[in-house]
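okkk here we go again. third time trying to get the flavin-adenine dinucleotide bound version out, last two times i messed up the smiles copy paste (missing a bracket lol). double checked this time i swear
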Amino acid sequence: MQDSIAQLRARVRQFVEQHAIPSEEPSLAHDVQRLDAVVRRLQGVAREAGIYAPHLPPEYGGLGLDWQARAEILEEAGRSFLGAPALNCAPPDQPNMINLLRHGNAAQRERYLLPLVRGEIRSCFAMTEPAPGAGSDPSMLRTTAERQHGKWIINGHKWFISGAVDAAFAIVLARTDTGATMFIVDTSNPGYRLVRNIAGMDGYQVGGHGEIVFENCVVDDDAVLGEVGQGFAYAQARLEPARLSHCMRFIGRASRAMEIAQQYAAQRESFGQRLADLQQVQAMVADSHIDLHASRLMVRDCARKMDAGESVKHDSAMTKIFVSEAVWRVADRAVQIMGALGISDDTPVSMIQRELRPFRIYDGASELHRATLARRIFQYGLRP
Ligand SMILES: Cc1cc2nc3c(=O)[nH]c(=O)nc-3n(C[C@H](O)[C@H](O)[C@H](O)COP(=O)(O)OP(=O)(O)OC[C@H]3O[C@@H](n4cnc5c(N)ncnc54)[C@H](O)[C@@H]3O)c2cc1C
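finally!!
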């Protein structure tokens, strides 16, 4: 098994080097239409190469990898902005597939999951709302779904919904009588409106980040995903694997930034010495390797526990905080080592850093995770 994962990883690396990285270009980073076309083309190549959908069970055309193997493959794919989307294991589609696998009924799987798996359609996940709605605190959810004449009427306002531009459906979290409920809403529904694609500092987000309004959006009972009232529980269950998958991909991204910075330091001279011979530069490189090594170990530990069916509530929060901050430090040092070149779009390093910054905010802000960890530590008297 170990051998075959190593071989699979080598194939993913080859794909990333030969297809994904050569398809990157700065003008693509914010061009959602072209990005879609490029990703669709790459998905075909990935399918041919037998590396498509590592997270899905074989009966859904996936590779059926466990979490430990996924840690390897997602890191490798994550070296390129286009690697994970090409393997169809990028958010929001990847966690949406997991939601549909876990909670979708047969008809929902047929209608939404299968075309999503095949890469024929895209999706988004709509939970966050502009103030005063749900952000870090999901209990502030203001989007409602009211029962009227045997239908559900959804009203609300969402934003920063990744993948929303040209998505075929959204999984929407709305307040219902008994808590919150997840609904699958077709974006062709007349009550669903994409207001805009929100411009931001990151790039290469397939489908951008949408602002969405639901105005008397009528859906039937068959739009309910799982059970009514279980929306918060499903959202929570989705977040743990989602944030760990992000950690895996971004370890790949940050290590690529440092690879490029090391190449620069090995050649660039200053005051008669290579940058690589200067102790302050050496310290930045060494600290980055320490950050990446520690990140990998934390992710692998979580992956091992998830494969064993153990809870990673506490560990995944610690891992998300550490990795999101560590990969940011690594990318920041890469920029610093490369001077002006690190700021430019002439190399991917600048975009890698911009892309890593929001990771300290989404999937739970670092402050929120620290507060929750500390509360649990004192509540249960956890030993350090
Ligand atoms: C690139 C990106 C992609 C995203 N994609 C999606 C998506 O696809 N779907 C979706 O539904 N949402 C998405 N989001 C939204 C994301 O989930 C929210 O940004 C996140 O939950 C934080 O909510 P907020 O932005 O409203 O920040 P707020 O809740 O306003 O918090 C702002 C800041 O306050 C601090 N803070 C908040 N609470 C606490 C606390 N308890 N203790 C200490 N400090 C605290 C933190 O520093 C936090 O960053 C995305 C966001 C980004 C940036």
